[in-house]
Amino acid sequence: MNYSKTSYRKSIGTPSYPTTTTKIIRKSRVSSVGSNYGSPLHFKDGVVSSLSSKGATDIKCTREKEKKEMQDLNERFANYIEKVRFLETENKALKEALKKQKRDFNIEPMKAMYQTEIDELKKQLLTTTDENATLKARIATLEEEMEGLNGQIRHLKDVNEEQQNTIENLNEEISRRMSECEMLRRKVQELEKQLSDWKTRHSHLDSQLQALRIELQEETASRLAESTRAQSLEDELNFLKDIYETEIKEYKALLAKDNSFPDMREYWTSEMGSCIKEISQEYESQLEALASSLEARYESQISEIRMGTSKGAVELTQLTDENRRLKMQKSELEDRIRDLETQLAQLTGQLRSVTMELETTINDLDHEKEAHRNDVDRLQLELEGLMKELQDLMDAKLSMELEIAAYRKLLEGEEHRISHSSMVSSIGGFQTSSEEALSNAIMQRSTAFKSSMSAEGSIANMGAARITVHRSSSGPVAVVEIETNGQYISLEETGARKIGRPTNLKGWTLERQMEQGGKLLSHKFTDDVIFTGKIPIKVWGSKYSSSASKNDIVSHINEWGSATAVSKTVLKDENNMEKAVFIIKSISDRN
């Protein structure tokens, strides 16, 4: 805005005052001096005249002094009146200049507009404050609920740990029982193998015994056959003997009937007797040889059979005893196997029931974990939504505060500039040296204020601008605040970090880039910077190091610049990846 400069001229001269005449009227005083007792005093001649002349001289001096003082006071009063009239004239000229300035530059609409915006911003600020308080109360409630849920989760974790310990104990018991079952199974297999060996041996002995029985039956059958044959031969021999005796009897009868040949009969009888004797001897010898051979054969076979039978009987007895022992051992093993199978079935049933109970418990725990995880995720989403809303509200609040500060600075600067420019305007067409120095200082300050307001993205040349703040964080740390005068930048740990692991900023970099290629302010964290809880860490400029606390950091940078300046603040990790951004923008409302 261009302001016109108006010069006021005034002819300065000696003011005219009305002439005043001071007239001193002397009166002769007659003093009567009386004594304390009422009688008059009498002086000598000349004493009263000397006293009166001395009093007149004193009065004259006093009057001269008073006259001089009155002249001084009159001059001072005249100067005061002249100064008052000069100031009245100056005030009149200033009023006329102010009226002209008001006519030329009407600030009332701007004040009304700014006042309206300030009222709206105050209303929004109050609304935001109420919403912030509501959200804080809700956040506190959610935090209490989260504490309760965390307590439930801890309780469930303890129960889960107890269940895990029980499961581990049961698994150990099951593994021990399974190892015992495996050992018993191996023992049973070994016993079954021994039993199969004994069965094989028994079957082998049984087969040998069966073979011996078959041989015995064959020998018995052959013996019976030989005895039958001997009986048949004896029967045949008796039959032949009977036949021969019958024939002999017939021949004897024939010979008895025929007596014509006595010599032949005797001869035949002798011959026949000799033949029969020879035949009988030969038959008897053959029969005796056959009988002796048969008896020897039978005796040898019977002895062999008896020896084999006795040996087989001994072996059979041994085999029978062994078989009986094996049968008893087998029955014992079968009973033990049945007991072990029963115990194994019981253990298997217990294992199955424990496994089913374990699966049921695991399923219940999985369902509870899933439900709690869903609740935690839902609460986390709600908390993130609330945190985002709170972040947006904080950003809006910060933007409003920055806009209000910018508007306040603008109004103060405009009022300051107008008032001071009006005060230092020359009324008489000239300025004193002090007035010129004051005017130059005010103009320089006004120019600096305009340049700073232009650099901060505020309003200039009757335009309006809105300052917005955008914050984002993709890591465990966020940039939450930039001090209004650039004294510090505040960093705060978010809830994105891993549980139980505090964030260390060693090797990270904090940068602030001003608008349009301005100065880049960069600070690198070379030492360990660890967050403790939710306490923010402030990175102070070296100019304000005296205000830093023990948990804060003092940077080598002098100051960070004004918070209303259009800029971009970035927090990078050791890999030069952006983890947090704080952007201040100025959006113009002029079309």
UniProtKB/TrEMBL annotation:
Domain of life (superkingdom): Eukaryota
Keywords, sorted A to Z: Coiled coil, Intermediate filament
Residues forming coiled coils: 56-250, 316-403
GO biological process, alphabetically ordered: heterochromatin formation; nuclear envelope organization; nuclear migration; nuclear pore localization; protein localization to nuclear envelope
Domain LTD per the UniProt entry, residue ranges: 465-586
SMART domains documented for this protein: Filament (SM01391)
Domain IF rod: 66-418
GO CC terms: intermediate filament; nuclear lamina
Family membership noted in the UniProt record: Belongs to the intermediate filament family.
Record-given protein name: KDa neurofilament
Species name: Octopus vulgaris
Record lineage: Eukaryota, Metazoa, Spiralia, Lophotrochozoa, Mollusca
